[in-house]
């Protein structure tokens, strides 16, 4: 199960980080949901849109990657795993709420799954490692 969760975390990081490196205008697809012409759901942020988008993107991506590293004991303490997953999922959910669209359906599903894993199933690094 650890490998499945790791792949889900890496895919979640990928989706979030596409906001930092958007595709060409008009080229958003389900596996690369951000393009240079991606439109906000509601433009409530005005001039803060780009920095907020980038902050949420990087925060989600780094938290997901750090959570994946924690699963294997690489540099990140195992007890940080639930917090990293929750913060990453929250940042990703906020990011994709700003840019709701057909190409952004999978990332919120990943966020919901990861939050269910932490809060509903109470999985930890120990349970995922089979310890």
| Residues in helix, % | 55-70%
The outline comes out as: elongated
Spell out the helices and strands N to C: HHHHH
Radius of gyration from the alpha-carbon trace, in angstroms? 15 Å
Mean pLDDT: 87
Main β-sheet description: none
Strand content: under 5%
N/C terminus separation:
12 Å
Give the helix/strand class.
mainly alpha
**Count of domain modules:** 1
How many strand segments? 0
Instruction: Tally the helices.
Output: 5
Low-confidence spans: pLDDT under 50, at least 5 residues?
Answer: none
Describe this entry's structure for a reader.
With 131 residues, the chain is mainly alpha-helical. The protein has one domain. The protein is built from 5 helices and no strands. It has helices at 2-17, 49-71, 81-98, 106-120, 125-129. The chain is elongated. The protein starts with a helix and ends with a helix. The mean pLDDT is 87.
Layout of helices and strands, plus pairs?
Blueprint: H1 2-17, H2 49-71, H3 81-98, H4 106-120, H5 125-129
Helix pairs in contact: 1-2, 1-3, 1-4, 2-3, 3-4
What's the quick description here?
The protein has helices at 2-17, 49-71, 81-98, 106-120, 125-129.
Keywords, please?
131 residues; mainly alpha
């Amino acid at each position: 199960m650890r490998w499945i969760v790791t792949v889900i975390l890496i895919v979640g990081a990928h989706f979030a980080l596409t906001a930092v490196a958007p595709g060409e205008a008009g080229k958003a697809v389900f596996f690369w949901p951000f393009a240079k012409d991606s439109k906000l759901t509601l433009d409530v942020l005005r001039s803060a849109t780009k920095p907020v988008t980038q902050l949420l993107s990087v925060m989600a991506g780094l938290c997901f990657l750090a959570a994946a590293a924690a699963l294997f004991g690489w540099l990140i303490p195992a007890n940080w795993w639930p917090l990293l997953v929750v913060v990453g999922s929250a940042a990703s959910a906020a990011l994709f709420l700003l840019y709701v669209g057909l190409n952004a359906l999978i990332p919120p599903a990943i966020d919901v799954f990861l939050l269910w894993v932490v809060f509903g199933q109470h999985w930890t690094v120990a349970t995922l490692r089979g310890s």
